[in-house]
Amino acid sequence: MSDIIRRGYNWGMTTRSIVWFRRDLRLRDHPALSEACSEGEVLPVFVVDPAFDGAGAPRRALLHDCLAALDDATGGALVVRHGDPADEIPALADEIDASTVYVSKDYGPYGRKRDEQIADALRGADRRLRGIGSPYAVDPGTVRKDDGDPYSVFTPFSKKWRACGWSDPIDAPRRPNWIEAPSDGLPERPDVDVDIPSAGEDNVLARWRRFRDDGLDDYDERRDLPAVDGTSRLSPFLKYGVVHPRQLLAESDARSKAQATFQSELAWRDFYADVLFHSPDSAWEHWNDKFDAIRYDHNQAAKNKFERWCEGRTGFPIVDAGMRQLVESGWMHNRVRMITASFLVKDLHLPWTWGARFFLQHLLDGDLASNNHGWQWAAGSGTDAAPYFRVFNPTSQQERWDPDGEYVHRWIPELDSDDYPDPMVDHKAERQEALDRYEAVKGSS
Ligand code: FAD
């Protein structure tokens, strides 16, 4: 206690706790924060974990902005520590003599191990880690078949998911009693060319309500057209929990067909988190291990092809437009994510993990569960996978979803000039090659 007095902390008789923010960078509809505030004084903390260095510069810039906005919303009370949370959190709890560290539960493979380790350390000091809520409408592990098994097919999952339901959003705590403590300051904001969308709860809720009022009723008709601004663009903020899916579900109405489609996209997000929760290895390994038998290329020629894919120089305009949109804006339209992913795996015969890693480096919404299972869907090796033999044809996909060429011209200014490359492969031949390689999967036991 003498150390605490020396450091100049407030010292009252009320309960003191820490709210450790992770993927829940908001004050509204935050059950863990509300519970902590109802009990007494709270130290709001974010730990800049060196493990975050793997995220690309655009996502780190977004994280910086989300933290700055959260700090503002707390009136400058946010304490940021840089280091391994396994050291920082127990040390902070000792420093302020917190009885409880509140978190929104993390169900990812890394977060679960980290939290178990931290819960043990806190327990040793007679403190506890208390998880309330998660970044999902329905916590992973909750939706199960009648026999208790997890689902591996989306449609029955989504029916049960709806039946499980979710609680109504709650307000931000009225007058939180923040504890003061020294902060290491926000992480450095990387210099990026990508436009980072405005962070902060007010901005993000305003973005949602604009979309809800102007775009949601046309969602099912416009969401597949990459030239059109027909989707919510909320994914980066769902990733960091500036907004919670519960808030979007509460303000949309499943009786409208378009709104129900939007809600079911949020169910996909929960589904993939659930799949990853039950099969943590499926982050980087085939969910369907029959696909371990498939042959991908890894040689120098494969690396050269990969480079052309990354740079958006394949000679297939819809693929190249998508890759340029990704690198230049930190986001790619969902339809084009499916096309570019299919092209990498089935036209270039490269491992899906190469593409998934590249996406995670560049996407502002880069998320292990949605990204890597989106990739496994495209590669045919995941749950609910597109049948492997249904190979996307990039030319007919473009004709169907970008019939006027508006999207491809927007991202490829040289498209109509001699500077644009010829197609790097013959799609028909590579499709056959993909099907031939698939025979090994069919033959494996
Ligand atoms: P909207 O159409 O407005 O949808 C609303 C929300 O629903 C999204 O913000 C997202 O949280 C969720 N959602 C929508 N579609 C999906 C889906 N297919 N799977 C899971 N959640 C979905 N999404 C990510 O959030 N992070 C990723 O790293 C990611 N990587 C992907 C990689 C591939 C290969 C594919 C095919 C899809 C990936 N997606 C990922 C899913 C989807 O492309 C994005 O969520 C969507 O494009 C985000 O734009 P939006 O917010 O405007 O979506």
UniProtKB/TrEMBL annotation:
Top-level taxon: Bacteria
Cofactors, names only: FAD
Keyword vocabulary terms for this entry: Chromophore, FAD, Flavoprotein, Lyase
Family: Belongs to the DNA photolyase family.
Cofactor comment: Binds 1 FAD per subunit.
Binding site for FAD: 219, 231-235, 262, 265-272, 365-367
GO MF annotations in UniProt: deoxyribodipyrimidine photo-lyase activity; DNA binding; FAD binding
GO terms for biological process, alphabetical: nucleobase-containing compound metabolic process; response to light stimulus; response to stress
SUPFAM superfamilies for the chain: Cryptochrome/photolyase FAD-binding domain (SSF48173), Cryptochrome/photolyase, N-terminal domain (SSF52425)
PANTHER family xref list: CRYPTOCHROME, CRYPTOCHROME CIRCADIAN CLOCK 5 ISOFORM X1
Record InterPro entries: Crypto/Photolyase_FAD-like_sf (IPR036134), Crypto/Photolyase_N_sf (IPR036155), Cryptochr/Photolyase_FAD-bd (IPR005101), Cryptochrome/DNA_photolyase_1 (IPR002081), DNA_photolyase_1_CS_C (IPR018394), DNA_photolyase_N (IPR006050), Rossmann-like_a/b/a_fold (IPR014729)
Domain Photolyase/cryptochrome alpha/beta: from-to ranges: 15-137
Lyase is among the record's keywords: yes
Source organism (scientific name): Ilumatobacter fluminis
Protein name stated in the entry: Deoxyribodipyrimidine photo-lyase
